[in-house]
Write a structure and sequence with these properties.
elongated; single chain; alpha+beta; 5-stranded antiparallel sheet
Amino acid sequence: MADDTLKHEEKQEVSISPKPLRCRFHETEVYTIFCKDCNDFMCFKCIGQLHQKHELSQLQDADEAIRTEMFGLLLENKYAEHLNSLIDKVSDREKELVQDEETITREIRTSVDKMKQNIDLAEKRLLSELRNAFESYQTSLQEQKSNINNLQTEIANLDVNKLPEFSFSHIINSLSEMKLCSSTSDKLLNHPKPGFQPSMELSIGNLIETKSGKRDAGALPLQPSSNISTQTDYFEDSYTEWFDAEDLEEDDVIESSSDEITDEYPIKFQINPDIKLISKIVPISEKNAWIISDRKLLKIVDHTLQEDVYAETVDDIATLKDGCVLILRNTKTNIMKLLPNRKLVSFADVGTINYFPYCICIKNNIVVIYLWHVANGYTSRNHIIWMNTDGIVTKSSLFSESGRRRPCAIQNLELGLCVLHRFNIGPNFHSLELLEAKSDKCNTLYVFTGIYGMNPQRNFECGGMCADNAGNILVSDHRHHSVYVLDKELKYKNKLYDSKNGLEKPTAISLWNDHIWVADGNQIFIFPYAKE
């Protein structure tokens, strides 16, 4: 009799759950209500979420229905099957995590090693640029010293008592040489010295989290599973159907990337993180474009950068209507043409002694090429040629100027040729001017002096320019994180976009069908451009 009593008490202990009837969705609440429509129990807070207008009853009144459900589940062994399946999946995920951690560890180490290599390359590049800048400056100073010494010798040989015997032209030439020597010396002495401005761009990458278990940018780590719940119907049929946990998905935790491409403007997309600077961008459709980065010709297709390199050592390009691309290299005199089948063929040889091409543009089937070189240390020689799309030269112009401004972009306009120059000595300041650009002369028509501050011409650092059909010039101001418009006389009209629109250091820009493409680091923005 005592044994029977003991067995009866043990059965009672098995049937009594030691856990409180806490709601699995609301930890501070207890189960008090039964939903007949869902065949599930809940607390008061659950009513307003998924059980509105359902038929409800007190939990105690549903004793028979709940016991019947539990009997069916235990009889058909549904719980055991599902729990065994879950533990298998969790075990598989544990193994995947170990493998994923090893893979990501290798990726991080590879990225860090690559960054170290890039830092070493950046050091070599900066030191090389520094050496070239100082050598150029020192060469100019030495040449000027030589010019001054020669002028001293020449003037010392002049006898003041015999001055009336010298020709008038000789006297003028001597005075002119002295004035030129003085002005050139002043420019050299007052020219800014090369400097260095460090930038802290050491982003290796980010851990991301996706639905497959990888991490998504900006996402928080998952909390333990005991703190994550989704209220739903556990059983579509209380006796035969068990829910599949993987089929449940919370809409409020699905995040969309800020770089996702949509049909709304502005469009923003990222390309290869190894790309730090895009020097040229030429759209060829709404989603496709050619770009130059690190002197390599690359292509964007459907807003995605292709892995192929179409040409090495490229400084400027222009696209023809037949889909071919003219490729300019400032170390070669031969302009190449990239055919649609990716074959490179010769287009035209434009070089002369000591002249090398630096910029190219095309408009209305007229190709314009700007050639340049420095003579005598501080005098620039310029050669502009015009040719048709068959590579036949139609006209050319030669002119010289003092100073060392290197052409870095050109636009062929109705009024003349717009040229963006970069000063070779000192910081990355630029100048923009419109040349008359005729075959016999290249007089300066208009000059853009900048718009910011008391010394705007000393703050104009331009990353790129393009022109609209009306002859307005669009420029990207690298220093002031903006893109703005200049009129035909290179006067400031209005700002288009700036840091408020996400721009940090805009560089290459271009127009395509009333939309402006703006390169910014390894990002590209596409903004609408309204016609005026």
